[in-house]
Specification:
The chain is mostly helical and 177 residues long. It is built from eight helices and no strands. It starts with a helix and ends with a helix. It catalyses: N(6)-[(R)-dihydrolipoyl]-L-lysyl-[lipoyl-carrier protein] + a hydroperoxide = N(6)-[(R)-lipoyl]-L-lysyl-[lipoyl-carrier protein] + an alcohol + H2O.
């Protein structure tokens, strides 16, 4: 299956997802590295095997080996960070915020790619994982780096489409059983 096959596998009742996937992968003004890194990290965060298999293969073909590895690192790091920070934020006992995290996240300091791309990917994963603390942090970082709101919004636009494709295709697979 290719990107085109993935789009074709989206059921007709979700035709807008097909159009949206086409738009975010083909009509974006993002650099190829920023775009395909975002597609890869959100495919990982979607937890959909079919979406990850197909979009992961597309991303591998379009990214340098360094960017492909850095994007996977962003997804892995944010999987930890999003759960940790979201939980601390949601607990009513604010004393947890005063405790040190004690979690290693050294890749954030040296991601192996442009730091803005890495922060963009981290924002996209945080959107899928629903961590407001991480969303705020990475959005501020991107805005300080000069991205306007429309550019920042591309991260969570891609995240929402990739996630929705995964949800839809996984539901179809289960319902077809």
């Amino acid at each position: 299956m290719s990107l085109d096959s993935l789009k074709a596998s989206i059921p007709d009742y979700a035709v807008d997802l097909r159009r949206n996937l086409d738009a975010v992968t083909g009509g974006s003004g993002l650099s190829p590295q920023r775009l395909w890194g975002t597609v890869l990290v959100t495919a990982i965060a979607s937890r959909s095997a079919v979406v990850l298999r197909e979009l992961g293969a597309e991303a591998r073909a379009r990214l340098s080996p360094e960017a492909y590895t850095a994007a996977k690192s962003a997804a892995a790091t944010m999987a930890v960070s999003n759960v940790f920070h979201r939980t601390r934020h949601l607990l009513s006992d604010r004393e947890y915020g005063a405790l040190g995290a004690g979690l290693r996240m050294s890749v954030i300091g040296d991601p192996g790619v442009d730091r803005v791309d890495f922060a963009f990917w981290a924002l996209a994963v945080s959107a899928v994982n629903g961590c407001g603390v991480c969303l705020d942090s990475h959005e501020r970082e991107l805005r300080r780096a000069g991205l306007d709101r429309a550019a920042v919004q591309e991260a969570f636009k891609i995240a929402s489409v990739v996630h929705a494709v995964g949800v839809t295709l996984d539901a179809e697979a289960v319902l077809a059983e």
